[in-house]
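Example with several molecule types.
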Amino acid sequence: MWWKVILFVGLAAVIVFSFITPAPQQVIGEASRIFYYHIPMAWIAVLAFAMAMVYSVRYLRSKKFIEDIRARSAAALGLLFSILATISGSIFAKISWGSFWNWDPRETSIFILLLIYGAYFALRGAVAVEEKRASLSAVYAVFAFVTVPFLVFVVPRMAPSLHPNDSVIDADLQFTMGASVRIIFFSSLALFTVMYLWIFNLTCRVGALYRKIIEEEDI
Amino acid sequence: MPNKSAGLTSRALSVYSKDMRVELRSKYAFNAILMFGITSLAVVSFTLGQTGLSPRLLAALFWIIMFFAAMAGLAQAFIREEEAGTVLALKLSADPTAVYLGKLFFNFSLMALISAVITPVFFIFTDAPVDNILLFVLVLILGVIGLCAATTIVAAIISKASVKGALFAVLSFPILFVLLLLLVNASAKVLEGATPGGIGTELQGLIAYSGVMITASLMLFKFVWQE
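Resulting structure tokens for the full complex:
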């Protein structure tokens, strides 16, 4: 219970301070505040995918439904956070570089992540038999995850380097991460991660209860 | 029925030859892919004309056509089993790894045949520069291996689902994206006149991709295949 209070107070403080303190990056000005939110969203989207993959592997080994519920919950939240990350990133791109979408490596990776989540749920929707649904989506989650190293290491070197978009962000993190910016940023990252884990836990418990009570199956 | 104590290669080859024999009777998958490929190629060529097509655009178009062709026909290997009701018989006759390898080689043969038809027609329709044709063929071979490596297990997955056709493309595309990016970059460079050294990074990426996809598929296939 105490950690929920800390989470609430902490996140409220982060939100307030992200708007009160001087803008992190002078060139873009006020719009750069979005990076306090955009980066945690993107990080959680990837974390959720990794968790979905791990739970998928555990399901394939143990065939216990609770692992499938966990994988599905992680994927659902991952989809939500990917959408948030894409939208916030687009807004940031429009303000700093003039267009909503540029196919720069990070944008491309988040787009692929969105497609993977979409495909995962499309697959789940298309299989009627419960056990088959769990196995097939687990296999797909693991298989899709295997492409992630390529997205991280190969795509940045392949994408046509018309404008080095990310250098603006990287330069950002290097020289204008003054003490106050650093504190707010890392608190935002940590607190949003805790919030995600809490929502994940709740979603899993709801899923398990639903299965137990409504479907009257054992987990 | 293949002898269970026979080696993996002969079991896989049995699955492969069964598939080829069935395919040669009706040529359904082959025709589907061929028609899809030729039609999309014709539409592209007709609308864009011959002049002013940059190497990058040509490369992109070529691989889009190959992608469409793959989506049209590579799922047939498993869908045909489901529709003919022979899945159980196949499960009884061979272990998952042999089935996977047989189907993989079948898909590969199919795509290889299609490429052999589509590639010359592509070069004729678009009058693309042919200086480094061997290098282009190398990229093509690696690309076809990559396409089959990634899509064979996805085909197995969707054959058990209900909306098969559309789902195949939806599931395959995120996985194929990296491959297509590598292929378009490599082909564009070849059409512009690159040496083998110039596309070294892409070649490494392509080989790595195929290796990773086949390995992951080998490990995961039995979970898709078994009841």
